[in-house]
Amino acid sequence: MSDLTTAFSTALRTRRLVAIVRGTDPEASFRTVMTLVESGVPLVEVSLSGADALGVLRRARAELGDGAWLGAGTVLTADDARRAADAGANLIVTPGLGAGVAEAVRRELPVAAGVLTPTDVIAASTSGATALKIFPASAMGGPAYLKALRAPFPDVPFVPVGGVDAAAAEEYLALGAVAVGVGSPLVGDAADGGDLDALRKRAAQFTAVAGAARAAGAAGAAR
């Protein structure tokens, strides 16, 4: 495990929240990334399916510096992973298992690899992935599905993604998810040019949920 991968694993378990930005307006997407970080959400993923995502990544990296966690999401191919890394991404996120995962591992970049079934989990566990993204979590039953998966895989670092609102985030974290990935319930329309003040309010709500989970985990460990 590389130093960067170890650092990401620690950050994921500490912060418990990854924001997912997918916008139709590159300028708004950039402002959304910056607002999230300023609002206490330091783990941010920019989906490659958004408008000029690589440009957003480059601008955000230049503004935030080398130490910030800045991910590229919806990485499907090895070329996607290469272009994302060249644009400044130091985290790769995929919707499933494929060449993007292998390329990220080859580059010693942290990767949250998409899984859905137990077969996926077994395959991903040998892929070198840092965390396993359950996607789309809500379509499979939400927190109940995480609970079912954790029965045979109690030590796997799961990150549920898809339809995660604040209430679901609280439940996922209580059930043992290392973190949650949150898109529209957190970002809303900000990346399309929407209200950044509303984004700040939603960020405060989600960081409070993550903070409560962090505190509960620390209390449990101290017992």
Write structural notes for this entry.
The longest helix is centred in the C-terminal third of the chain and has 27 residues, at 196-222. The model has no long low-confidence stretch (mean pLDDT 97). The chain has helices spanning 3-15, 26-38, 53-64, 78-86, 99-106, 118-125, 143-150, 166-174, 184-187, 196-222, and strands at residues 17-21, 43-47, 69-73, 91-93, 111-115, 131-134, 158-160, 180-182. With 223 residues, it is α/β, with parallel strands linked by helices. 50% of the residues lie in helices and 15% in strands. The two termini are 30 Å apart. Strand 5, helix 6 and strand 6 (131-134) form a beta-alpha-beta unit. The chain has an eight-stranded parallel beta sheet with strand order 7-6-5-4-3-2-1-8, sandwiched between helices.
